[in-house]
């Protein structure tokens, strides 16, 4: 079963309307969502996340309506905007996310350890650098691995080491999950075949 299927979708977003190409995204592998600024890439991610409804056409995610609550535990969403509580530490965020996901905290700690960043777990989010805040956000929103992983420009602000680790993680997830990714770096060294969806211009 495809992870994402769209047919004749038009999105009503602030100020403009976005035409979505008809797609069928495989249930495994990395799919890059490409297009110029304003072409609707983030809106497409939100469609798949169930937070933007089509003005016309149909969309299915994991065989269900994107807004169906049954998908929540099968889909992770990493948005561009980092939404961390400024006064809460990374560890406090970790506990909150782990509790909401019904996952042991150790699962999250393993991800942070992979990135070599356990030292700042007790630092309030407001005191993190842009890169560390981004990395914490990416780890928190993509743990545990889900059947569908949606990422809107997750590499923004990450240093080269963190980017390389994240690329390897995404390649690993793609062996058993569908990864939909907005990324403007066309030369990123993916190890496996990557599918591409080209968003059109704003209609």
UniProtKB/TrEMBL annotation:
GO terms for molecular function: ATP binding; ATP hydrolysis activity. The keyword Transmembrane helix does not apply. Residues 24-155 form the ABC transporter domain. Coiled coil: none annotated. It holds the Pfam family ABC_tran. Keywords: ATP-binding, Nucleotide-binding, Transport. This is ABC-2 type transport system ATP-binding protein.
